């Protein structure tokens, strides 16, 4: 039995790696490239129209977690990286950031990408500018002659400016450096730069996010720069309610789940991409498994892939074999029942009610089930302890939702299957 899902050897199926990896498709993912990206043609056209419409734009991309927002933005950035400069990784926004942190991290990510391009001999900016820029921002690059690996370390401000405070804490100096970088990018043949910011859904306080947006408003109006922010529906509401920022926002693009045919094409491409050259390919699952989980999770790709991975690994404990839909349902219900055995009957009642209602706060659960609010909190700790429930804070309210594992209880009986294999991709 495989206790650690991360160590499962997909080679037994003739695959080089996990085809159900839920991490975003990105510039750094060497296994799953942008060739496996499917769909989003309307959203891609809409975002590209924004980028091409002006020399400076601001876009919010939002949707529920697990639907592929980050992969989508990465795909569009990659598709346009001949026209625009774009950092190789998303910039992960942190709570408590101010405009200086925002600009500082944008500059560092940009600089690191320039170094990567230089290392791979794909640089479009001359080496002298990169070296001078490094000195100006107080960063130094060390290249290992054996591995050609690159590390970036902060050096003292005295080396660059002679000041006691780091140059990276000087807002005016950072703005000047940012403007100079963008000017150089355009002079070197690019149309501008695209910056991608994740983690806005980490903000659960409206005032905190609104204050952050107001603090960066002037920065995002910079010429030759395109700013793409990624968040959830709460993020979208805060953007809308922050009038000062909302007035300069060019567009809001909602990302809904891809349709079932696109999801199946995604799985097909992942299999083809990861097939080992000399391996004997065995289809990990039948198409009906994808259909059943698509209906269960309303198309949430992340939840579907996590469930498929769990069921396939359990199904192949003795030898690799194709997962049938009936076996998948039996396996997943068995796994969730193991967790239910660790909680009290009352906690199970609360979970079943939450599965029906989808999303409730503490007081609503207490009212619906005639339970004291403080007792609901205790039961929630039980459920969260076995990963059957998670909480989401929005403003002053905290809501509870069933996890993707809890949803396995909603899988129906064995069902029918005509066993259409994914082995057509072998």
Give a verbal description of the structure.
With 426 residues, this protein is an alpha/beta fold. It contains 15 helices and ten strands. It has helices at residues 41-53, 69-79, 99-119, 127-136, 171-187, 206-215, 233-241, 243-246, 260-274, 287-296, 301-315, 325-340, 345-357, 362-369, 373-385; strands spanning 57-62, 91-92, 139-143, 150-154, 193-198, 225-231, 251-254, 360-361, 389-394, 397-402. The strands form three sheets. A five-stranded parallel beta sheet has the order 2-5-6-1-7. The protein has a three-stranded antiparallel beta sheet with strand order 8-10-9. It has a two-stranded antiparallel ribbon with strand order 3-4. The longest helix has 21 residues, at 99-119. The relative contact order is 0.13. The model is unreliable at 141-165 and 414-426 (pLDDT under 50).
In brief, what are we looking at here?
The chain is α/β, with parallel strands linked by helices. It contains 15 helices and ten strands.
């Amino acid at each position: 039995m495989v206790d650690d899902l991360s160590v499962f050897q997909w080679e037994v199926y003739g695959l080089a790696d996990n085809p159900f990896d839920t991490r975003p498709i990105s510039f750094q993912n060497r296994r799953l490239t942008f060739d496996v990206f499917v769909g989003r043609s309307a959203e891609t056209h809409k975002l590209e129209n924004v980028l091409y419409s002006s020399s400076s734009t601001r876009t919010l991309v939002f949707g529920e977690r697990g639907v592929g927002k980050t992969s989508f933005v990465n795909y569009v950035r990659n598709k346009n990286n001949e026209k625009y400069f774009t950092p190789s990784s998303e910039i992960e926004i942190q709570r408590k950031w101010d405009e200086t942190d925002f600009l500082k991290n944008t500059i560092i990510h940009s600089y690191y990408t320039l170094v990567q391009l230089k290392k791979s001999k794909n640089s479009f900016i001359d080496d002298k500018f990169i070296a001078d820029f490094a000195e100006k921002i107080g960063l130094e690059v060390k290249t290992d002659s054996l591995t050609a690996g690159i590390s970036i370390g902060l050096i003292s401000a005295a080396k660059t400016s002679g000041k006691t405070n780091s140059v990276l804490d000087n807002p005016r100096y950072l703005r000047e450096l940012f403007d100079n970088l963008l000017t150089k990018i355009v002079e070197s043949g690019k149309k501008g730069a695209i910056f991608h910011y994740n983690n806005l859904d980490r903000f659960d306080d409206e005032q905190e996010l609104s204050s952050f947006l107001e603090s960066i408003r002037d920065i995002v109006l910079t010429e030759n720069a395109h700013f793409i922010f990624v968040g959830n529906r709460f993020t979208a509401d805060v953007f809308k309610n922050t009038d000062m920022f909302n007035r300069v926002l060019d567009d809001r693009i909602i990302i809904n789940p891809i349709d079932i045919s696109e999801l199946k094409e995604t799985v097909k491409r992942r299999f083809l991409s990861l097939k080992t050259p000399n391996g004997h390919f065995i289809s990990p699952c039948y198409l009906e498994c994808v259909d059943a989980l698509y209906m269960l999770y309303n198309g949430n790709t992340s939840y579907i892939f996590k469930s498929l991975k769990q069921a396939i690994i359990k199904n192949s404990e003795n030898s690799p074999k194709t997962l049938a839909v009936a076996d998948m349902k039996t396996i997943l219900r068995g796994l969730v029942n193991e967790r239910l055995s660790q909680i009290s009957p009352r906690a199970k009642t609360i979970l079943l009610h939450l599965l029906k209602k989808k999303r409730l706060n503490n007081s609503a659960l207490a009212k619906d089930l005639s339970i004291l609010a403080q007792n609901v909190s205790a039961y929630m700790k039980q459920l969260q302890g076995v990963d059957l429930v998670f909480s989401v804070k929005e403003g002053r309210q905290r809501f509870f939702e069933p996890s993707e594992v809890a949803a396995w209880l909603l899988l129906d009986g064995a069902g029918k299957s005509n066993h259409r294999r994914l082995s057509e991709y072998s």
